[in-house]
Write a structure and sequence with these properties.
With 286 residues, this protein is mainly alpha-helical. It has 15 helices and no strands. α8 runs antiparallel to α9 and α12 runs antiparallel to α13.
């Protein structure tokens, strides 16, 4: 972080937009490495207080280099990660929604750097058609755009017009599935697992489909991606009133060391926090 602050100071005193833009672009790989290091942090309170500063810094860097795809993806991930980890969506849904929208919009900006995607949308053609022009380079942007969009939609169920965005979210995730369904520990399969679990069979969902997607997540992520176990307990075991499975999955989350896989330390800590809250609600579920 010290290196980043030094670089930012140099950028701010530099003259000329092109010089500043070049400086920002040169430091994005280092910033990405620092972000990765942050996800190895076991103390969630450090990140709770540090992430807002990081997000502000990202916003500032994007003012200087608005078309840096990697930085836009980092921004989309940060704006989606903060409310997921630190905002109680039941208590403050509006704040969470604002952050998810900001993350979604950063992701869409990254996608629109693809000229064919952007032109197709500008011509008024279907979003699904435009998505077909996105290749492997855009997988992270598609995934985090869709994640933010879906999180916002889940908090906007009272807004009927918001439901019209669902096909766009599905189009992005389908494209990720086509190009690389292993990305981010099989995250696209986790998305579909929750999607099917929340949709009745008559609407194309159902628990059998959800189980198949959870199986894929566990295949690609292994045993150390504890967020998958948490969601399995919340969205599969709980609706089916399978108390034994519910207890088993949450026990695994709580008893597995968060740093069992260093890159997942932060997300595993978040899974533990969510598991404790869910256990406190157990009497209302069963």
């Amino acid at each position: 972080m010290k290196r980043v602050l030094i670089c930012v100071s140099v950028i701010l005193i530099s003259t000329g937009c092109s010089i500043k833009r070049m400086a920002v672009n040169s430091m994005v790989p280092t910033f990405g490495d620092l972000t990765g290091a942050a996800y190895k942090q076991v103390d969630t309170e450090i990140l709770r207080h540090g992430m807002p500063f990081t997000i502000i810094l990202i916003d500032g860097l994007l003012e200087l280099s608005p078309n840096n795809r990697d930085l836009l993806v980092i921004a989309a991930q940060a704006y989606g990660g903060y409310p997921t980890a630190f905002i109680d969506e039941d208590e403050d849904p509006e704040r969470a929604k604002r952050l998810y929208v900001k993350g979604r919009d950063y992701g869409l900006r990254a996608l629109k750097l693809n000229k064919k995607f952007r032109k197709t949308l500008e011509e008024g053609k279907r979003f699904r058609e435009a998505v077909q022009y996105l290749d492997e380079k855009y997988i992270p942007a598609m995934f985090w755009t869709a994640q933010n969009w879906a999180a916002w939609l889940s908090l906007s169920t009272k807004n009927v017009s918001a439901l019209f965005d669902q096909p766009k979210i599905i189009a992005l995730m389908e494209r990720v599935m086509e190009l690389d369904d292993t990305y981010y520990y099989g995250g696209v399969h986790l998305f579909y697992a929750l999607y099917y679990a929340n949709m009745p069979p008559m609407a194309g969902g159902g628990m059998d489909k959800a189980q198949a997607e959870f199986d894929k997540v566990f295949e690609f992520a292994g045993e150390n991606f504890l967020m998958a176990n948490f969601f399995y307990a919340q969205y599969y075991a709980a609706p089916l009133r399978d108390e034994a499975l519910f207890d088993r999955e949450l026990k695994k989350v709580l008893e597995t060391p968060s740093d069992v896989e260093p890159e997942l330390t932060f997300m595993n800590e978040v899974a533990k926090l969510k598991a404790k809250k869910l256990l406190n609600k157990k009497n209302r579920i069963f």
